[in-house]
Design brief:
CATH topology of the largest domain: Rossmann fold
Strand order of the largest sheet: 5-4-3-6-7-9-8
CATH class of the largest domain: Alpha Beta
Radius of gyration: 22 Å
Distance between the termini: 44 Å
CATH superfamily of the largest domain: Vaccinia Virus protein VP39
Helix content: 40-55%
Bound molecules: S-adenosylmethionine
Number of domains: 2
Length: 364
């Protein structure tokens, strides 16, 4: 027994719990509008409460947590709290750099601990239906900003030739589209192309259709549709999945269907988590504990609930490449995204027309 190691770990446990506790406070700050208010400049607890229209006593206690948690700073002389602009970037605004919405996903997953522990004991999982409708809204809240900021420049235009093809007019299908904000943005940006989004979640499809109508788009549609059983006769020039393969019950079936529906010369873009299939390569990745936790609390578990593969969030690049090959994607390039948590798999079938030099599977 190494006493120093034991003491260090005890300290580490304290840090872990403080981090988890601050996650709750980030979520409270996001929902209550405190981050946006705090970003306006140094303020006492009274001033901040007045600015945000909140109860001062609660605001003061929240400030205690986020200040000792080194998110905000305190000036004792004039009793003011401030949010440095360097911190505000990650907690405010409508762009993808605002990470505050992620906290809501974690606090929500906390509600499912009992059900997940039951699955540890009894097998099976927790079905998607048990996470809805809140999950739909949380996904939307989390990804909407990301797409507004990065969809076109960070995902589409990094694939050579794709922007030009979309401008000239091609057919596009997004599988597991959720609330469809990505398809709606693309439909607005590329009026000569046509877009469709498929998802099994009826509540998400309703929201996607409502947004398309609100945006006055005539070149996009959304359908409740299982990815593993796409209608016959479909053919798309571009197919996409955004974080929508690894939590499926039958991900290989979905990839096979995507391959079947890809037109000659078509491209499949699979945006998915950047990680390795081998845990030893993920050790030291500061985001890995977050990814494995979200997987345990949702992604793996919804798949297992349907007797599925249970790939999990961290299925990783090696397994992804294997499954894409099995689906018939003979050419796969793996590109980095400007979002460091994602990889962009650019996939083509044999004989497909290339829009850029391709690397063989496993290169890059
Ligand atoms: C993590 S969410 C991502 C949603 C969306 N792509 C986004 O970026 O916001 C995964 C989505 O895949 C959908 N999904 C899961 N299994 C599916 C299946 N078999 N067929 C179609 N969609 C599925 C879920 O309903 C969910 O909306």
């Amino acid at each position: 027994m190494n006493e120093t190691k034991a003491r260090k770990f005890l300290e580490r446990i304290g840090e872990i719990y403080s981090g988890a506790a601050l996650t709750l406070m980030i979520d409270v700050g996001f929902r209550a509008g405190l981050w946006e208010a705090a970003a306006q400049g140094p303020a006492t607890s009274e001033q901040l409460a007045a600015l945000a229209g909140l109860e001062e006593r609660y605001v003061r206690e929240w400030l205690g947590a986020v200040t000792t948690g080194e998110i905000m700073e305190y000036e004792p002389e004039n009793r003011t709290y401030s949010l440095a602009p360097e911190h505000a970037i990650s907690l405010t605004g409508e762009g993808g750099s605002n990470r505050a919405p992620n906290a809501g996903l974690l606090t929500y997953l906390g509600k499912h601990v009992n059900s997940v522990v039951n699955a540890f004991r009894d097998g099976g999982g927790v079905p998607y239906s048990q996470y809805r409708p809140e999950f739909t809204g949380l996904m939307d809240q989390r990804f909407r900003r990301e797409y507004d900021e990065r969809l076109l420049d960070g995902y589409i235009r990094v694939v050579p030739g794709l922007d030009e093809r979309l401008v000239s007019g091609i057919s596009v299908c997004d599988i597991g589209c959720g609330t469809g904000h990505n398809m709606n943005l693309m439909a607005a940006a590329y009026p000569a192309s046509t877009f469709v989004g498929f998802d099994i979640a009826a509540d998400a499809i309703d929201l996607a259709r409502a947004e398309a109508a609100e945006m006055g788009l005539g070149n996009v549609g959304f359908e409740v549709q299982d990815a593993t059983n796409l209608p016959g006769g479909l053919s798309f020039d571009l197919m996409t999945t955004f974080d929508a393969v690894h939590d499926q019950a039958n991900p290989q079936g979905a990839l096979n269907e995507i391959s079947r529906c890809l037109a000659p010369g078509g491209v499949y873009l699979m945006i998915d988590i950047k990680a390795s299939s081998d845990i030893k390569n993920n050790i030291g990745n500061p985001l890995a504990p977050y990814l494995y936790t979200v997987s345990t609390m949702h992604c793996m578990t919804v798949s297992l609930a349907a007797n599925g593969a249970g790939l999990g969030t961290v299925w990783g690049r090696e397994l992804a490449l294997e499954m894409l090959t099995t689906a018939g994607m003979s050419e796969v390039e793996v590109l980095d995204s400007s979002n460091p948590t994602n990889s962009i798999y650019v996939c083509r079938k044999a004989g497909g027309r290339k829009t850029s030099p391709s690397l063989r599977k496993g290169d890059s």
